[in-house]
Amino acid sequence: AYTAEPFVPGGAGLDALREAAAGCRGCPLHRAASQTVFGAGAPDARVVLVGEQPGDQEDRQGKPFVGPAGRVLTRALDEAGVDPDETYITNAVKHFKFTVVPERGKRRIHKPPSLREMTACRPWLAAEVHVIDPEVIVALGATAGKALLGPSFRVTKQRGMLLPCPALDGHEVLATIHPSAVLRADDREAVYEGLVSDLRVVAEVLR
Ligand code: URA
Ligand code: SF4
To answer: Do the beta carbons of residue 140 and residue 82 sit within 8 Å?
Structure first.
C-alpha cells in the first residue's frame, strides 16, 4: 500500500518534519507535482486548519493557501475573530494532484485525491498534530472531513460542530466548507457567511 510512514522521522519537530517531507515518495503524487507543500504557521498554534491538497499557486510557491482560496480563508478567520498568530495551516495531502487541459492553455486543473492517497499522506498530518497538540482542528471541506473522520463523514450534516477524531489521538475536529466553495457559489455572500459562522465556534473554543 502507498504510505508516507517510512519517510516520517520519529520524535522530530516541525522543521525536521518539513525537511523530511520534501523527500517523501510515499505515493505517486510526488512525481508530477513541483514540490511538497508542508504546513505553515505557529509551532504552538491553538488551532490547526486542514485543507484538501495544495492548488496550482501553492505547488509553485511551496506554501499552503497562498492562492484565491487562501484569501477567502484569511478574511473569514479575521471576521470570525480567530487570531492568525494562533493558527497553523496544512493540507490532508501534501502534493498537488492535477490534470492538464490542453484546450485551456495547458492549465493545470485540480483533481480530488483518492482515499488511498489521503491514507498514504496521513502520517504527515498525524505528526504535525502530535507536535503542535492544538485545542481544535478545523477540517476545510468534505475531503479533509473524510480524511479525518472517515468516509461516511458528510459535511452538509456535520459541519459547525465539535467531533472527536479517533484517527488523531481523539483531538476535537470542527468541519466546515472549503473556502473555494465560496468562490464557486452563485450565492457567494450566503456561503461565505456560513463559513464565518462555523469559524465563530472555533473562536469560542479559543476564548
Ligand atoms: N486549497 C486547499 O485545500 N489547500 C491549499 O493549500 C490551497 C487550496
Ligand atoms: Fe508523500 Fe503525501 Fe506527497 Fe504522497 S502526497 S508523496 S504521501 S507527501
So the answer is: no
pTM: 0.97
How far apart are alpha carbons 42 and 78 in whole angstroms? 16
List beta partners, residue 126. none
Ligand 1 contact, 90 CB (< 6 A)? no
Residues shown for the chain: 207
**Which residue in 78, 32, 28, 88 sits closest to 203, CA to CA?**
78
Class of the CATH-defined domain 13-206: alpha beta
Ligand 2 centroid from CA 188, angstroms: 32
Instruction: Write down the domain spans for the chain.
Output: 13-206
Average pLDDT over residues 199-205: 98
State residue 94's pLDDT score.
98
Distance 139 CA to ligand 1 centre (A): 12
* pLDDT tens by residue, 145-157: 999 999 999 999 9
Residue 102 has pLDDT above 90, yes or no: no
Concatenated DSSP letters of 14-81: HHHHHHHHTT--SSGGGTTSSS----EE-TT-SEEEEESS--HHHHHHSSTT-SHHHHHHHHHHHHHT
